[in-house]
Amino acid sequence: MTDHDRARLDYANLLASHVDGGLEAARLEGDLAVRFRAAWEEVQRRRASGDMGFLELPEATEAVAAVKDVADGFGQWFEDVVVLGIGGSGLGAIAVRDALLGPFWNERDDEARDHFPRLHVVDNPDPSTFGRLLDRLDPGRTLFNVVSKSGSTAETMAQYLVARAWVEEAVEADRVRGHFLFTTDPRAGALRSIAEAEGIPALSVPPNVGGRFSVLSAVGLLPAAVCGVDVDGLLAGARDMMSRCREPDLAGNPGALLATLLHAADTEAGRHVHVLMPYADRLRSFAFWFQQLWAESLGKARALDGGPAHTGPTPLASVGASDQHSLLQLFIEGPKDKVVLFVSVTDRGDDLTIPAGHPDMPSLAYLGGHTLGELLDTERRATAEALRREGRPNATILIPRVEAHALGELFMLFEMATVYAGALYGVDPLDQPGVELGKRLTYGLMGREGHEAPDIDDGDPRFIA
Ligand code: PA5
After folding, report:
1. What is the third-level CATH fold of 3-48+233-433?
2. Domain locations along the chain
3. CA angle at residue 4 from 100 to 319, to 5 degrees?
4. Is 274 an annotated catalytic residue?
5. pLDDT tens-digit map of 289-348
6. Which atom of ligand 1 is nearest to the CA of 184?
7. Could you tell me the pTM of the whole model?
8. Is the dihedral of CA 432, 436, 438, 443 positive or negative?
9. Pocket probe mutation, ligand 1, options 54, 83, 89, max atoms within 8 Å of Cβ
């Protein structure tokens, strides 16, 4: 594999040699290398204590075989597969679907889908979305993959109950369980108990793999495999990136560099907003996956040593060139609080040549003979340069194509960068105590047993007349 076949990070525009206020390159061999070494040791320690199960996923051959078994067998009996899962239990599947199945998968006919099912991922329990989806589906030909590691998340459980009643109304009682597949903890939680009691097939999320790190487990692999995605390629890409990100040497480790550069930009240069801006529609959902990973892992009130932390950069998902006409003005002239991370795709495969129409109109004529992919990539380069000239740091991740191997590399690159960044910030990147309170209050308000209805301070609203 040559350098051009793998994901590469070009960070020149983060350095003082290229951008005003950038980082002195020598520091990457000096204090930042020393600081990273300590972060690396912390990650090794947590890995050795068994906390970082996501690092085992690319080599979990038995679990992958179980996924393929279901996907290639019983998964193919259906026309529509509906994933019900939220946060880390939904965003990875959406990212894989949009990147690797490409646009309009669900609108294609059977032949154009190679007879694989349509794939819907419903994360939000918004009745207008879920209700309209059910209206379009045939219960007799639909499989619901209910994904919840805890098996108790209110949104997903509510959707499961709605889906279950909808199936029960349409098919014979002894066939209901055949329309469900659970992805959950191997032992604990309501979904596991229901699966065991009713013989509903269930795949496992390893207990030491957190939701937002679970895309390469059955959580993301089953929806991918059931639609014919090359999951071996995805996992091979993750393995390749993982071996590059294991090094204690900062300069040779892309995940370490990404974490170190973004952490330094945030904590030393006030660049608190980290924008991920792929120039590819297929990677738009990947940017949203990153947004959750970075936010939930690094936004913490407590440090590892128990003291206060209040750390965390704000991630922002964006897409080029669309957001050049929306957010870019802010990035270029607004507060100097951002780092923009582009993703560039070298080979778009199905590129379109722009015809040489209207040769007498200079505002159109120059486009003729170029391709749409060329235009997108030129815009990315021009935007990076414009940002640089205005003293706005940016970097670019280059991938050869949007295909399984590259996506696997991207997932692992950001997962590794996240755990290294957690160690640099001195926080636990694997927990999310901040979202628990809202969950508990919801349980109380919705009347869940064992949860008292709380007093909510929303009894005195102020409206404009
Ligand atoms: O990353 C996380 O841990 C969360 O976003 C969870 O994935 C999300 O809350 C859903 O949890 P569960 O899979 O238990 O339903």
Report:
1. Rossmann fold (3.40.50)
2. 3-48+233-433, 53-229
3. 45
4. no
5. 999 999 999 999 999 989 999 899 999 999 999 999 999 999 999 999 999 999 999 999
6. 13
7. 0.96
8. positive
9. 89
